[in-house]
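Quick board copy: two proteins, each given as sequence then tokens.
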Amino acid sequence: VHTLTHGSDSWTGRRGFISGELLQKHAPVEEESMVLFCGPEVMGKIMMKILGEQGWAESDLFTF
């Protein structure tokens, strides 16, 4: 799910911050799955916290 906080005027995808609700909807915890995400360091820390609270193992989360 591509989400931009500040997309250009031509961006037609999702806008805004990534929330726990959005992650539950689009990244439910599943066996043999992983989550890949990129963005600023502070976003990575927030994502790791939210996903960990939702039950994801840290070994299944990858940020770059």
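And the next:
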Amino acid sequence: LVALVSLGVGCSSARPAVRTAPPPPPFRIEIRAARDSNQGGPLFVVVRKTDRAGFLAEDYDAIADGVFAEPRDPAVLRRAIVRPGQVMTLEVPRAAGDSEILGVYFLFAAPGEDWRLAIADTGVAGVRVVLGASGVESVAQRR
């Protein structure tokens, strides 16, 4: 009888398997830099989480200063160097149902008006960005 009670207690303490949904696929940013991008020199790309008000308030110097800041900005998801004439793809983690904006910043030595872009639509799986001499020339979304 003791063996049966022990067996029953052991079975009742078993936890049901918890299934978690797999994480969503990463957000993909394909960057095509022209040969004359950034006056022929490499440039930094920074991807960070932000919100609409924060994105509108951020200026070039604040983003540039934060690239190597210590302690590291926890909102920065990815940073990379893009060279003129290069095509590269960055993958950035994005949580399911994430309502935050992804800010993508291109740190040109002499930036034009279009040195950054905001990705607010969570239905967008990725973007293709073409860089010109001093800014973003075009952006195409991929769903």
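Board note added afterward: The radius of gyration is 22 Å.
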